[in-house]
Every structure is written in C-alpha cells, then in structure tokens.
Amino acid sequence: FVHVAWPSLYRTAVLMTGDHGLAEDLAQNALAAQAARLASVEPLTRENERLRELLALQARFAVRTHAAAVL
C-alpha cells in the first residue's frame, strides 16, 4: 500500500507546502497515522481518502506554524 500511495501523497504535500523536506515528513506522518488506524477497526475501502485528509490537516498546521515562526 505504501509503495502505491507514496508518490501521489508526496506530490500533494509538496504542492500544499512548497517545501520538499516538510512534504516528506508530512507524507510519512500521514502514512504512519493511517497504518495505526488500519490496525484497529477502519475498513480498508477509504485508505486514500483518509490519507489525503490527514495530509491536508498536517500541512495546514505545518504551514501556519512555519508562517508564525517567520513573522
């Protein structure tokens, strides 16, 4: 699953943040969070949708945090 999801997830994170390092961290965190969630009760049918939601949440937080640090 990770090998299939990684390229588009990483590309989306780069587009959202504009930072390759941060994008890699966010994509890894989203995959880790999804793996933990799948280990519990989450059905496998919403994997990609949930990953994108996690990535979007993390990216918004990271961009806000970075912007606040720059100001």
Description:
The structure is a single chain. With 71 residues, the chain is mainly alpha-helical. The protein has helices spanning 2-17, 20-38, 47-70. α1 (2-17) packs across α2 and α2 (20-38) crosses α3 (47-70). The longest helix has 24 residues, at 47-70. The model has no long low-confidence stretch (mean pLDDT 80).
Annotation keywords:
single chain, mainly alpha, 83% helix
Provide a concise account of the structure shown.
With 71 residues, the chain is an all-alpha fold. It has three helices and no strands.
Binned, the helix content reads over 70%
Outline: globular
Mean pLDDT: 80
Q: How many E strands? A: 0
Q: What ranges have pLDDT less than 50 throughout 5 or more consecutive residues?
A: none
Task: Please outline the major beta sheet.
Answer: none
Could you say which structural class the secondary elements and strand pairing correspond to? Answer: mainly alpha
Secondary-structure element pattern, one letter each? HHH
> How many angstroms does the end-to-end distance come to?
39 Å
**Number of helices, counting only DSSP H or I runs of 4 residues or more:** 3
Q: Report the C-alpha radius of gyration, rounded.
A: 13 Å
Percent strand: under 5%
